[in-house]
Amino acid sequence: MLFSSEPIRSRQNRTVVELAKLTDRRTREAVKLFRFDGVKLAEEAIASGAEIPQMFLRESEAKTIVAALEERTERSLAERVGKIVCLDDGVFDRVSEEKSPEGVICVAKYIDKFQKNVTIYNDADFSELADERIVLLEAVRDPVNIGAVIRSAAAFGVDRLIVSADCADIYHPKAVRASMGTIFRQKIDRTDRLPEVIGQLRESGRRVFAAALDRDALRLGTFRIEKGDCVVIGNEGHGLTEQILSVCDGNVYIPMTERTESLNAAVAASLLMWEFSK
Q: How is residue 180 annotated by DSSP?
């Protein structure tokens, strides 16, 4: 196993500075690397086969964490991690994204670089995905919501998420954490042509519903959902754009009491996924 010769004790160390920069989306996209904190996420990444060039460990817990990860994943970290670096406890705590650091931070390559289950499409033919359960997102900007939707998609058997290019970055540390590791296995496509994608799905014989309330909207649970039906969930504050609404087959709404006007986007997505997956 390759450790740095001595634990890093300076916050200004170049390796530590580069790690801290990965909280910025532009940096992540430039180097095609993202970071995530915690034992659970490290375990999921290792088990799924993610490429992990670097792993940072809190000096006082390094041996314990290595032993725990190797036991849980039944894999040697020497074979799965490019380089393991120990950080002084104080330095580790300052660069960690967690309020209560668990002692491990991983740096991984973008998922599409090792598994091709996250892709960026501009003109792909989604009509070929006839047997997949699909949910679409437009302009969901909160990374926590994106991560939670990914987690729910995995739980309810959604085969593929298709997200618009203006959604929050799936590699944001908060999104990765909220996904609870399901990001390493969930198929996700990002497109800057969401209306065209919806058109392709409809041309293939699918119905695509918009999660929106109007006088003609169908109440969830009162109509028959057919195999292949899809649903589009919109922005947390503004919902779906008129352009998306105009290309869908119809609208569907979740019945609620008068005590609130709307649901959190991730909660709404979970309810819709559950109903559409039954």
A: T
Query: Is pLDDT of 65 > 90?
Result: yes
Q: How far apart are CA 69 and CA 1, in angstroms?
A: 14
The Cα angle at residue 153 between residues 173 and 122, in degrees rounded to 5? 75
Dist. CA 231–CA 152, nearest whole Å: 14
Check if CATH label 3.40.50.620 holds for domain 14-111: no
Where do you find CATH 3.40.1280.10 in the chain?
118-277
8 Å CB contact between 186 and 153: yes
Confidence of residue 115 (pLDDT cuts 50, 70, 90): very low
Q: CA-CA distance, 220 to 181, in Å (whole number)?
A: 30
Quick check: 231 and 136 in contact, CB under 8 A? yes
Q: What is the dihedral of CA 212, 214, 215, 216, to 10 degrees?
A: -50
Convert the pLDDT of each residue in 77-108 to its tens digit.
Answer: 988 999 999 999 999 999 999 999 999 999 99
pLDDT tens by residue, 210-235: 999 888 899 999 999 999 999 999 99
Measure Cα distances from 88 to 19, 57, 67, 175 in Å: 15, 9, 19, 27
Q: For domain 118-277, give the fold.
A: Alpha/beta knot (3.40.1280)
Predicted confidence (pLDDT) at residue 69 exceeds the cutoff of 70? yes
End-to-end Cα distance, the chain: 47
Amino acid code (one letter) for 58: R
Whole-structure pTM value: 0.91
The tokens for 176 are 């990765």
Nearest-CA neighbor of 231 among 187, 268, 180, 257?
268
